[in-house]
Every structure is written in C-alpha cells, then in structure tokens.
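Example 3.2
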Amino acid sequence: MGKKPKKLPITATPLPTTTKAEPTHANPHRRRKLSTTARINQFHALAKKLAQVRKAGGNLLEEQDLQLQIDALGGLHAYQRASLKGGDERSGRGACGKWLVGFLGPLKEELVQAGLSHQKKNKKSDADNESTPVIKLLDIGALNGETYSKQSKWIHAQYIDLNPQHANVIAQDFFLRPIPTVPADYFHVVCLSLVVNFVDDPERRGIMLMHARKFLLPKGLLFLVLPLPCTANSRYMNHERLKEICIAIGFEEIEFHATKRLSYHLWRRVEDSEFAPTNVDKKMVNDGPGRNNFSIIVKINAN
C-alpha cells in the first residue's frame, strides 16, 4: 500500500498531481507560482515544528534556529496574505480594507463620541481627536502603510508587522505591545486581517484575540479576517463556534461576510460589566475526512 499524500496547510494552493517535466516553452508565470507554493508549505512546516518544540520545552537552540528560518520567510508571509486578500494590497487598499471602510463611514460619529466620553471619564483628552474627529485604527500584520491613505482625513491608521515589507510599517510583535495606560494609546478599530491563522498555536490565537480587546475604546471594533477554510472546512471551527468565542471574550458580532476565499467578521467590544469571561476548549463540530484542524482555544487566565 502506498503512502498517503501529505496534507497541505489550510491556506496553501494544492500542488499539481502530474510528475511530468514541464516543456521548455511552459509559461514562466506558472513556474514562479509553483515555487511560491513550495515556500508556503515550508513556512507552515516550520511554524508547526516551532509550536511542537515550544510545547516540549528545553531546546532553546532549536527554537531559535526555527525562528530564524521563519523570519527569513517574512516576505513570503506578506506575499501569501496579499494573494488571499485580493486587490492590489502592495500599492494601496485591497478588498479587505475596502469592505471595512464601507462600515466605518456610518459608524464614525458613534465611535468618535464613545472615545471622547472615555477620555472625559478618565479626565484626560486627546487634543487631536477633539479638534478633528477621527477614527484611530491599528492594523496588525499590515502589508503596507497605505491601505487607509485615501481616508487619512478621518482614519488615522498605525501599521505594524513582525517583518515589515514597507517603510510605513513599524516592526513590532503584537503579543509584546504594552497594554494602554492612557486614553491616547487606545484605538477605535483593531484589524487582524489574515493574522490569527498564522499564529502557530490554538491557545495563542485566543490570547491574541483577548489582547486585541485591551486596545479598544468603548464600543470599539475588532475586524477579523480568516481564510474561508478556517471556518467552513475545519473539524473544530465553524461560524457559530467562532461567535461563541466572540461572546466569551467580550465582543458581539455586528457583521459577517464570506467570499470565495475569505470570511470577514466585524466584532464590537462590550463593556466588562456586560459579559462573563468564559473558557472555550477545542471541540469537534465538523467530523469527517478532508477537513483541516484549525481551532482557537480560550483560556481566560492565560491572558
């Protein structure tokens, strides 16, 4: 009996089944695409191995070596996110940003007023927000610093990424970003667009979502984008399960949209007094062959 074919990562493009060599006149774009696919597989294999080493503990040298290899693929990470997001993300706003902007316009006044009330409650003010009402947005895992440039008069965006591919993007690990202590450090909107699925461990994905909430002003929005297979073809995740996680960590879903490749989730922060933090374990929701293992685990004390 032959060996079973190795499963590809959730977001990878399937490799061709043919083993025949391509003719010399083959389309050069096709060869580049296959090379990128191989590198995407390498990225996910390294991330999986790093998660295993971290869980086992005690092998710092191997962990550092794996991290260096992953860092060397930083450009690949951005390339794959761009190809999934659609639109020309490298030179401007893509499909994800365009969808979000469509909702922020009508919510602008409500978000700004909630932010101003928070400042007054804390007896501190942000002069810029008071003189020119704007939405402050934190884009985590940003491909460039221009996604919201066309809305710069009313959206003040800050862009961060582990491995910046653009001069306007700040190099920062969001997990290590200090929790705000003054009103000026909070945001009306936090974006996690095709970021959570790259986190190497289900529990760390939950920690990232809980950490994001700590940066939001009252009624602030979390914009979460995932590859569609994460919610449509996972053994441990579907839209309803994700909504359970949303509620457990202090959000309410106000909008959802699915495309052929992505799912968009817009969550609103609820006040601490309006929800009870709840653990969410890994749970089978879609058993059967041909599914992936994407999941998110919430452990309240882990945050």
